[in-house]
Amino acid sequence: MDLSARALILCCLLGSALCQIPVVSVEPRSTTVRQGQSTSFRCQVSGGAQPVQLEWKKGNNQALPENAKSGPDGSVLTIVNARPSNQGQYRCVASNRAGRANANAVLNVKYAPKVQLTPEGPLRVRMGDPVSVGCSATGRPKPKLSWKRQGSSLQLLTTVTNDINSVHWPAIRSEDSGVYICQAENNEGVTEVKVGITVEGGLGAPVASVSATEMTVVDGHTVVMECQASGSPQPVITWSKLRAPLPWKHTVERGVLTLTNVGRQDSGQYICNATNIHGYSEAYTQMEVESPPYTTCLPDQVKLQAGDALSIQCLAHGSHPIQLRWSRVGRANLPAGAEATNDGKLVIASVKQSDSGTYKCVATNHIGSSEAQAKVTVKA
Ligand SMILES: *[C@@H]1O[C@H](CO)[C@@H](O)[C@H](O)[C@H]1NC(C)=O
């Protein structure tokens, strides 16, 4: 044993800080974020022998999720765009030559409900059959579940077993045909899932069904809705739109409704009605037309004196959610002192002559994006 090793042992016997394991803590000890938000934890060393190495782990000893990153010295752990699966304990492990110590932090991730129906439907059942549909949901906080019939606000009586909320008909009747909605709600949001139930039966009476109970289409496209009907004599099929006339650019041929060049105003509920001498049957298709953003700047030209305040509003129409982003044409960054607010404004409290130029607002949704420009001139 050489001299320095002996010296070290001696120091340790004397209780020197040279031989103490790290003293470590984590800040904050617990935090709650929404899904998609980012957060970070800081690991602090307040004692023990130097050098101290820091490392972060998930839970007891698992690797970090790929959206969790720790800085070069390991002191800060950042979780970017948090997911429900990121919920749990994170551990900062500090080690030095004397040993290792841990400190823990807890991350809670809140998220809006996700709903699952079993069976998913649409369902075609025979009159008199027993039918049940179960609804379950994930979400944090734990969502509350309820069932109702489309067009009615009354909650249906349900049974709950193992967190599955079910509607049940011991013997279904033809007037039970319709669309049923399971709603899951927590503080983060409300999610609804629909199931269409068609009860077939009654000799010769029509039973109508549509090929899709819900459709989402993009602005300008052509939509084809099919409706089929059983019954004898062969039912006659007509199409209508709930509380509105059919769009004028429509055709109906053998039960197939075609809408060309749809716009947002064509969104709504379309009804197929199959009629014969025994009665009629309706089936519904809910159609949503989505559009890319259309963007404008208000105003799109501004003339100011140095020292004036600048405020330009970016406006976008189209399917929500829409993200707005301001930038300066030909430059990497907005000028110092410029701020893009959450509601889409570009603001500079006191403009300088060098702030003159063209500014651009880009609006983006899940369909596409578009941009608008505003010209700013500042005189000395
Ligand atoms: C379907 O047709 C029946 C009988 O012709 C009628 O009473 C009913 O109102 C129609 N429904 C719709 C939504 O047009």
Automatic annotation (TrEMBL):
InterPro entries associated with the record: Ig-like_dom, Ig-like_dom_sf, Ig-like_fold, Ig_I-set, Ig_sub, Ig_sub2, Neural/epithelial_adhesion, Neural_cell_adh
GO annotation, biological process: cell adhesion
Regions crossing the membrane: none
Localization per record: Cell membrane; Membrane
Ranges where the Ig-like domain occurs: 22-108, 113-198, 206-290, 293-377
Annotated Pfam families: I-set, Ig_3
Cellular component per GO, a single term: plasma membrane
Superkingdom of source: Eukaryota
Protein name: Basement membrane-specific heparan sulfate proteoglycan core protein-like
Natural source organism: Gouania willdenowi (Blunt-snouted clingfish)
Phylogenetic lineage: Eukaryota, Metazoa, Chordata, Craniata, Vertebrata
